[in-house]
Amino acid sequence: MRYTFAIGDIHGCIDPLNRMIDRVETYAPEGTVVFLGDYIDRGFDSKNVLDRIIAGTADPWRWICLKGNHEDMMVAAYADSGSRAVWLGNGGLETEISYGGRVPPQHLQWAADRPLMHVDRHRIFVHAGVDPAFPLERQSEDDLLWLRFPPGESSDYWGKHLVHGHTPSLSNPVTTGNRTNIDSGCVFGGKLSCAVFDDEVAGGPIDFIEVRA
């Protein structure tokens, strides 16, 4: 049996991240880990989080690191001074403090290069959401990074299960129909959550791993 593990919004919380990685690697001898973005901002250890994520993992594990809206804001803030105030007001100040100043170019480039989506045989992984009114290949970057679902909303998602973060709640992780939200508000005193999927079985998670902040 092979597993995919989807980990929700980290937001600079290095201790829960390290404990989550340990829990995942104890759960199975190998697998795919999909990080859903928002590694930075609001928490006080964004630099350490990016250092750990960028360092990666060893075979036979595979890590896929998606872009979140906070990585997008950070990249925009350094590319255009007019976008800087928006980022700083959304947790970017804590990120710069964690670096002792400016974010280095190599971390900005890594953030800029993140994919917006990962699709496997049974599931779609994105940071925020998708709009079922448009084909999967025509989803807008804005929706993938910023969309929020009304409570209880679900769709068929092209025959796959949708996995996302972005919309925090202390009651998450929650599966609603064909959609699972795993942003459990770690940086707001909640927990860091991971949804576990059997790669050979369609549908929602078979388990959750949760680490308290």
List the SSEs and their pairings.
Elements: E1 3-7, H1 14-27, E2 32-35, H2 46-55, E3 62-65, H3 69-79, H4 84-99, H5 105-112, E4 117-119, E5 123-126, H6 141-146, E6 161-164, E7 174-176, E8 179-181, E9 191-198, E10 207-212
Parallel strand pairs: 1-2, 2-3, 5-6, 6-8
Antiparallel strand pairs: 1-9, 4-5, 7-8, 9-10
Helix pairs in contact: 3-4, 3-5
Domain Calcineurin-like phosphoesterase: 6-176
InterPro entries: Ap4A_hydrolase, Calcineurin-like_PHP, Metallo-depent_PP-like
Protein name: Serine/threonine protein phosphatase
Description:
With 213 residues, this protein is α/β, with parallel strands linked by helices. It has a single domain (3-212), classed as Purple Acid Phosphatase, chain A, domain 2 (4-Layer Sandwich). Helix content is 31%, strand content 21%. It contains six helices and ten strands. The chain has helices at 14-27, 46-55, 69-79, 84-99, 105-112, 141-146; strands at 3-7, 32-35, 62-65, 117-119, 123-126, 161-164, 174-176, 179-181, 191-198, 207-212. The strands form two sheets. A five-stranded mixed beta sheet has the order 3-2-1-9-10, covered by helices on one side. Strands 4-5-6-8-7 form a five-stranded mixed beta sheet, with no helix packed on it. The longest helix has 16 residues, at 84-99. The protein is globular. The model has no long low-confidence stretch (mean pLDDT 97). GO terms for molecular function: bis(5'-nucleosyl)-tetraphosphatase (symmetrical) activity; phosphatase activity. Residues 6-176 form the Calcineurin-like phosphoesterase domain. Pfam families: Metallophos (PF00149). This is Serine/threonine protein phosphatase. InterPro entries: Ap4A_hydrolase, Calcineurin-like_PHP, Metallo-depent_PP-like.
